[in-house]
Amino acid sequence: MDRMQKHRHGSLLWGEANTTADFEQAAGYYLRFIEEYPESEDYEKGAYYLSYCYYRLDRPEEAAAILAETVEIRRRVSGPDHPKTLRAMSNLATVLYTLERFEENEALNREVLEGQRRVLGPDHRATLTTQNNIVVLYRTQGRVDEAEALALETLEAQRRVFGEDHPDTIRSVYNLSLIYGIREDWEASERYLLQAIDARKRVLGETHRTTQATVYAHACLLARQGERQRAVAVLRELVDQGWAKERLFEDPDLDALRGDQEFEAIVAEVRNKLDGES
After folding, report:
1. Is the pTM of this model over 0.90?
2. pLDDT per residue as tens digits for the range 83-107
3. Which of 193, 249, 202 has the alpha carbon at shortest distance from 222?
4. Using CA atoms, how far apart are residues 215 and 206, in angstroms rounded to an integer?
5. Where are the domains of the chain?
6. How far is CA 51 from CA 34, 57, 124, 209, in A?
7. CA separation for the pair 242, 80 (Å, rounded)
8. pLDDT tens-digit map of 209-235
9. Which of 75, 110, 177, 226 has the smallest CB count inside 10 Å?
10. 40: which DSSP letter?
11. What is the separation, in whole angstroms, between the first and last Cα of the chain?
């Protein structure tokens, strides 16, 4: 097989991987691929697939090492501001975040953002995605004021460029709900969360898993505020749509509902449904 055929074969292995053995097979294949074609056009994709396999195999440090090597190759071959270099840096930053190497993640994301603004422009989707990644980092670190300011700036641009119903716009709306929830500004948090729910219902439908996850977040928000009746009503609507997740049983955000007769009936219904599926 030539390089393109080998890459396509590897893509099939990666795309169909589900088990540990599958990911080990795909990782071995792509490790050989990037060793054989270290500076080819497909190296970056091969390294990304390999790093993802390592991540799924609970080997994140190896994933980070592969992506760091990719960044260095891209910088040498394509230059520091090439879109492929910036994409490789962004992939590395994502793995650094999962490793909780937050200082490195922030420095790299800021470098990516500066490059994307120069090369792609401030309103490019990749640029705004990097801004959103920095928002998530700030939120994780409890830097709420910085997170809010950058999230509002990002959302304004996404609404202007992509419209209200674009997935990135909706994600930013949801992020703002989480930020205000950390502040316990319940009114603002619920306002943004309801916007995200309405948009996801329009775009994805009421029973899509992402829509239902957002509705579940609304129930949790209401429970944290002590609005027990509204929270239970939201959960009842979810379960009537077929939603059933184990997280309902021990989620601390729902502790205020425990002991409520209607809530416990919902818990029992979900438990029976899950037991019947096992």
Report:
1. no
2. 989 999 999 999 999 999 999 999 9
3. 193
4. 9
5. 186-278
6. 11, 10, 26, 27
7. 49
8. 999 999 999 999 999 999 999 999 999
9. 226
10. S
11. 43
* Angstrom distance (rounded) from CA 68 to CA 59: 15
**Which token pair is 165?**
């119903």
Q: Tokens 């891209």 belong to which residue?
A: 74
Helices (H), the chain: 3-15, 20-36, 43-56, 60-77, 83-98, 102-119, 125-140, 144-161, 167-183, 186-204, 209-225, 228-240, 247-250, 261-277
User: Both tokens of residue 183?
Assistant: 């502040």
CA 133 to chain centre: 9
Cα separation of 32 and 35, whole Å? 5
Residue 94 confidence (pLDDT): 92
Query: Cβ–Cβ contacts within 10 Å for residue 119, how many?
Result: 16
In this prediction, residue 28 has a pLDDT band, given cuts at 50, 70 and 90, of: confident
Own/partner pairs for 104-108, CB < 8 Å, 24+ apart?
105/137, 106/134, 106/137
